[in-house]
Amino acid sequence: MCGIVGLFLKKDELRPKLGDMLTDMLVTMTDRGPDSAGIAIYCEETDGNVKITVQSDTPAADFDDLDATVCAAIDAPVTIKVIDTHAVLTLPEEKEAEAIALLEERGLRIMGAGVSMEIYKEVGLPRDVAARFGLRQMGGSHGIGHTRMATESAVTTMGAHPFSTADDQCLVHNGSLSNHNQMRRKLAKKGVLTRSENDTEVGAAYISSRIAEGASLGEALEGTLKDLDGFFTFVTGTRNGFGVVRDPIACKPAVMAETDDYVAFASEYRAFADLPGIETAKVWEPEPATVYFWER
Amino acid sequence: MTTTLDMATTELREVNTTLQGAAKAQANAKYVIVNPRGSHAMACGLDGALDVTIKGSTGYYCAGMNKEATITVEGSAGPGVAENMMSGTVTIEGDASQYAGATGHGGLLNIKGNASSRCGISMKGIDIVVHGNIGHMSAFMAQKGNLVVLGDAGDALGDSLYEARLFVRGSVKSLGADCIEKEMRTEHIDLLKKLLEQAGADARPEEFRRYGSARKLYNFNIDHAGEY
C-alpha cells in the first residue's frame, strides 16, 4: 500500500507549523505503511551554502568532530546539526561534490543535499520516527512524507522514502514499478547512478536525469507516463515547487486539498482531517496521467 | 427520535455494532454520525431499515453490503462506497472515489458530485445515478442494473459489458470493448424518468444517450480477438 503525504504552504505565517501538520498527516497514514517513515522538508536557506543530510547507524562515533574533519579536508567553514541517526552539514556550495565524496568515503549514507531540503528517514513506525527526529518542531515552506509497506526491496533506511537524486529534488511513491531494473541500467549507461535496489529511487533518478538534460519538472513528470511501467502515484518536491502525477490506470489512491493557505496531498482523506480550514477546502482526486504542479 | 454518535469519542467498531444492531431491531430509527474524519468501513453491513446520516467525509468502503438502510454522507466518500449493496439507498452529497457501487446487486446509489474511475464495475442489479462526471473504466464487466450519468464519462466506458444499461447525458471520452450506443426507446425513457425522479436529478430523459453491450464477446469468436 504505502501512505504518502505532502504539504505546500502558500502563506509564510504557517511556516513554523509545517512539521507539526506534516507529522499529524504522516502518523495518520501509519496503517498504510508501518515499515518505515520519512520526510523531506524545505526549510531555511543560508546564502551561498548547501546542506548535506547524512545517516549513520553509529552516529555517536561517526558524527563526533565530523564538522572539524570535513572543514579541514575541504578547507571551508562547516557547521553540523546532529539529530538522532542523521546529521545535516552546512558548507559552501562550491565544496559540495568534494564534501559528498569525503562523507561517502567515511561510510556515511547520503540522504540528500540542497540549499533548502533536509531529509529524515528511518525504519520503524511513523510515530516513533517522527519523535526521534523531532519532526513536529521543524518549520519550512513545503515538505513531503511517506509511510512504507515494502514490496520491491528490503526494509532498510536506504529503502525508505523520500528519495533524493539531485540537489533539492525529492520523491515519494505509492505503487511498484515493473521496469525499474531495465530503467536503472539505462540510467547507469548515461552515468546516473542509484544508491539502492529500490524501484522508487529509479523513479526519482529518472526525473532528475530528465531535468539535468533540460526538461522542466512538468516535462519530466510527463515523461514518467511514457517511460516508467507499473503502478505509481508520485509526489515530488523541488526547491520552490511541489508536483503530483499518477499512472494512467491510477489504482493507487490519491486525494488533494487546496485552500488560500496551502495545497495538500494524501493517500486518504483521513490525513487531512486536522488541517485548518479543511471543511471549506477544495478537495478532489487527481486525474490519471495528469501532471499537477505548484511553484512559489 | 434521532440518536447521535460522535466519532471523536466513540470507536468505529462500536459505531458499526450499534448501527448493525439497530438495523435489525428498530425499524426506520434515525442515527446521525458526527466527526467521521474519513474513517473506513462506516455504516457497513446494515441488514434492515435504518436511517443514517454521516456529517462529513468517509474513507474506504462506506455503506458496503447495505440492505434496506438509507445512508447519507454529507461529504465525500472514499474508494468502494456502497460496494456489493443489496438494497436500500445510499446518497453521497459530495464526490465518490474509485469503484463506487462495485458489484452492487440492488438499491440506489445516488452520487450528487462526481465519481472517480471504475464506477459501477461489475454491477449486478444496482441503480447508480451520478449527478456529475465519472472516471475511466466505469461499468467494466457490468452485468445488470442501470448507470445514469448527468455529466461526462471517461475512457473505456462499459468495457466488456453484459446486460447493464448505461445512460450518459454529457460526452463519453471513449467506449470500451463491446460497448456500443443503442437506441433510446420509450421503455428506456420511462425507466430513466423514474430513476431521475428517485435521485432528485434535474435532467430530462430525452437529453441522454444509451449505451449497452454489442454482445459480441458473449461467445468466443476468433474474429473478435482484437476486441479483447
UniProtKB/TrEMBL annotation, chain A:
Keywords: Glutamine amidotransferase, Transferase. Residues 2-296 form the Glutamine amidotransferase type-2 domain. GO terms for molecular function: transferase activity. InterPro entries: GATase_2_dom (IPR017932), Ntn_hydrolases_N (IPR029055). Pfam families: GATase_6. CDD domains: GlxB. The keyword Cell inner membrane does not apply. The keyword Transferase applies. PANTHER family: AMIDOPHOSPHORIBOSYLTRANSFERASE (PTHR11907). This is Putative glutamine amidotransferase. It comes from Celeribacter indicus.
Automatic annotation (TrEMBL), chain B:
It comes from Celeribacter indicus. This is Putative glutamate synthase. One of its GO terms (molecular function) is oxidoreductase activity. CDD domains: GXGXG. InterPro entries: Glu_synth_asu_C_sf, Glu_synth_lsu_3.
